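Hi again,

Forgot to attach this to my earlier email, sorry! This is the prediction with nicotinamide-adenine-dinucleotide bound. I've pasted everything inline since the attachment limit keeps bouncing my files.
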Amino acid sequence: MNFLVTGGAGFIGSHVCEALLQRGHAVWALDDLNDFYAPALKQANLRALQALGRDFEFVQGDITDAETLEEVFSFAPFDQVIHLAARAGVRPSLQQPALYLRVNVEGTALLLEAARRHKVRKIIMASSSSVYGINARVPFSESDPIFTPISPYAASKLACEALGHVYHHVYGMDVVMLRFFTVYGPRQRPDLAIHKFARLMRDGQPIPVYGDGSTARDYTYITDTVSGVLACTEKEFGYEIINLGESQTVTLNRLIEVLEQEMGVKAVIDWQPPQAGDVPITYANVEKAQRLLGYAPQVKIEEGIRRFVAWFKTTQG
Ligand code: NAD
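Structure tokens for the complex follow:
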């Protein structure tokens, strides 16, 4: 099949492209290579994809530009679109709310329009656990009410879920919204805690911990996320929202312990007040993913951090 992967040079996108290529699909990756983090890292991801020697094309372009999208959709009849391009990150979204809404919501609307015009039947999109806001009920279930986002980023992803429903309802597109839960592993975004902490620990710098370290996250190893995304490509859903987490929470203090063990370095902690926009806990109920996708997350935090640190030491050690 022909796939268009937006955000294909990024962390999750590059792994999704790789898995699709390894299954023999043709993949076009669209990415603007913006400087939210070092574009050199995205270029390195692209080089790894090109080195596979498979059916891969990279297009540098912006999803908020309708003309670029029109051109991209004329390159091939895409069977499916996997839409991962976004401004990611909760805290930075409080600094630049309009940018987050423009890229994530307007960009998604333009992409859906282009997909509709070009008769693409299916689109799989990245949503986020952050849409749950401060959810009193754990684990988080897709049927929980989600009217309390606490960051512009979360609000933008909520809007994307709603837009996806519109395109399913009005145009009959097959739309799957995947709520990712803190994804980590090789190539992880450098702004995210695990990667940032590893870098600071390597350099003997203090690591900033917001709050008392009791905040908990459902860290999902990248290969589990990718297996969930790929399972979505294999059948029709109508419109579904699906959690993809590990269904196991880890406190920040525990995460630091595991990192210390694998890095072989004792962390120096720079305690900071809790940050606006941060939720106290994320915890996925993955029963729906198990039922609809046969999703069965495999990699526990200790093993995942071991693999992440092995990658980190090889590439940035
Ligand atoms: P990432 O920043 O590594 O990847 C996103 C990619 O999109 C980047 O390469 C970026 O250059 C590209 N992009 C951004 N704006 C663009 C634009 N206007 N036009 C074209 N390309 C653009 O982030 P990631 O962690 O791989 O996240 C992928 C998706 O998953 C995002 O939608 C993110 O919101 C979502 N998500 C990620 C996590 C996580 O833990 N990593 C959790 C929940 C949701």
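Residues 6-7, 9-13, 30-34, 36, 42, 62-64, 84-88, 103, 107, 126, 128, 180, 182-183, 189 surround nicotinamide-adenine-dinucleotide (CB under 6 Å). The chain has a mean pLDDT of 96.

That should be everything now.

G.
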